[in-house]
Amino acid sequence: MPSLFDPVTVLSGVGPARARQLEALGIRTLYDLLTDFPRDYEDRTRLVPIASLTTDAPACFEAMVVTEPRTSHIRRGLDLTKLTVADDTGRLHLTFFNQAYVAGQLAYGETYLFYGRLEGGLLGVQMTNPAFERPGDPAVVTRRILPVYGLTAGLHNKLLVRLVGQALDACLEDLPEVLPTSVREARGLCGAAFAYETIHRPASFADLAVARKRLVFEEFFVFSAGLALLRARRTAVPHAPYRNLSLEPFLAALPFSLTGAQRRAVDDLLADFAGSRPMNRLIQGDVGSGKTVLAAAAAYVAAQNGCQTALMAPTEILAEQHFRHLEPLLASLGVSTVLLTGSLGAPAKRAAKAALADGSAQVVIGTHALLTGDVTFARLDLVIADEQHRFGVAQRAALSAKAGSPHLLVMSATPIPRTLSLILYGDLDLSVVDELPPGRQPVDTFLVGEALRPRINQFIRRQAAEGHQVYIVCPAVEEQEADSLKAAEAWAETLGKTVFPDLRVGLLHGRMKGAEKEAVMARFSAGELDILVATTVIEVGVDVANATLMVVENAERFGLSQLHQLRGRVGRGSAKSYCVLISDAKAPETRARLKALCATNDGFQIAQEDLKLRGPGDFFGRRQHGLPVFKVASLACDLATLQEAQEAAAACITASPPAEDSPLWGRIRALFGDGETVFN
Ligand code: ADP
Ligand code: MG
Question: How far apart are the CA of 534 and the centre of ligand 2, in A?
């Protein structure tokens, strides 16, 4: 008897060639075959009389062959086999293309079950290539719900149905039950054997729903158990509580008082610091809600307790900006901060590294190269990751392995839908900053076409005349032939020379050298530029309060969340701010997407919309997002199950961690990739 992890070649009808085709689908073992779930189902359960067949949908019917099947050779490569079948309600002509063998299978005077769709044509109603079998045969292509598998060339659905059937017959009982009985019973979930049998060979759609529910839960449970294990690991190491938790000097040094939401987040941070486990926290807040100051507060507390902080930003521009804002604030409190980025000169780098190694600098700001490079710390104890999805599960796991178990604080870049945040950050405690600093007015957003260009230019001029600054974001850096995309380089030149010769126009894009970028950003921050033409390098985090207008060229090219981020660059001061989306795109979906942005300033609502429109894979654009691949579960639809599974998994892992050789561990390893970085 074959067993679960035997290669597919143990099945009858699978030789080396078939095995290679299956391998292309990622199927090597019987287990792989059983976890290659159908992507759809055809309902072939109902038998109808011939008179009730329609052209709308295929159906099953039972009929007798009433003419001798005849094959005619039409031309090279085209044979037609024709016959007529009948039941009490009518007659029907059947035509098979290039299937001359059916003439030998369908015998005059015998009754068969068929499945097909009527076609109405010039020659009258008929049916082409119906599936058929004898009433005494096992129900394979008729009288059942037929699973539809994702196929590759050369592998037919029928073959997969047969192979999966063999695998089920051989090893259904071997399938490991990864869900604890108590968890299954509490939620009324069916057992593994029933679920796998039913997802492939459903007896009814009701059963199918029961099976799917369990498999979705199982998938989320395995994932959540993985996150819970990570979390347990990271917090297993005790951490000496910080003794000095006074924030008063820090708060007194701020030019503003914290919002209620910021205050609550700070309280969460202080409670973490006071505890005897490492902090493990995510701060989520919409664009402009003031997360940076929370990072500074945390770094300040760490410094008061003799510890160093590494603050990692996703781009050098952002690291430099944080440095410009935080260094003076922290310095006034006696906390020394250094900047460490790739584009820093060698002597400056050396000095910064020396200060970190001997402990004379308490805070370092840089990109996440900080943790991968050859930087040594006297006493690193707080790691803050700002604005990046790239600091995913794997990086978090690697961090605790590398740096001992420091306090960890992640600040999320974009507001992300709750499902995705549970998936990406399910191992972290959450603080939400759901309040903007006082005095902010919502940014008015407009969608306009090229035709309004003169008016947009006037509008830009007026903002500049009032002493404000303007961003113009282009989708590309250089002009590409054939494409009508606005390119930053050429557009900056045109604007500077011919449209606004009297204004100061700067250019910023990702291909510039670090020092050049820094110089341009510094000039814009200092108000020495009126207009900054840029690519999306300014997407996250850039903070210049005097900028009041964001113009986005070819807005159709950007995702909703990305546009929301771009819009977040303005409306940061007390002056009224605007966002103008320029697009001549006609497609109704595109216009609907852009209008959604004009309608609301609520980042979470926009994120949810974006997830719906683009699906989780594209949600983060081309950035590496580290989302695991779920086979049955849908991140857009199964939110409630995800939450349940997460609670159940956390409870189970706390009560009794799974043994390293348990099926659950095996599944966790498989889901998180080879587990090299995450689980080793
Ligand atoms: P984000 O959450 O997008 O990272 P930032 O931290 O960049 O937001 O903050 C946006 C702006 O709001 C900054 O200029 C910051 O100084 C200012 N800010 C933050 N908190 C407050 C507050 N409580 N009152 C007034 N302004 C604030
Ligand atoms: Mg920020």
Answer: 19
